[in-house]
Design a protein that fits this description.
The chain is of the alpha+beta class. It has four helices and six strands. The termini are far apart.
């Protein structure tokens, strides 16, 4: 089964730090851990209709959590920092949140 664009992009990451990136046309998404930078680029271009300049990814190890005597780990997450080309329009979903 081939992954669709909607399988690769899981959700946007909306934090104070990522809101500061919106003015630079840089957006952050949580993505499938198996997705490559090329797949992420194609998925963002397909879903939002923009031209992607660059994609940087980071994998964050899940935090250790305790429940009584038992310890476990939250899931590991892969995030993609996507920079949009200067001549391309911004992603409307994010632009509406900043105004």
């Amino acid at each position: 089964m081939k992954a669709t664009a909607y399988d690769i992009i899981i959700r946007p990451v909306l934090t104070e730090k990522t809101y500061d990136f919106i003015h630079e046309k840089r957006y952050v998404f949580e993505v499938d851990p198996r997705a490559s930078k090329t797949q992420i680029r194609q998925a963002v271009e397909e879903i939002f209709g923009v031209k992607v300049k660059s994609v940087n990814t980071v994998r964050t190890l899940g935090k250790m959590k305790r429940q009584g005597a038992h310890t476990g780990r939250r899931p590991t997450v892969k995030k993609a920092y996507v920079k949009i080309a200067p001549d391309s329009k911004g992603i409307e979903f994010f632009e509406n949140m900043v105004q």
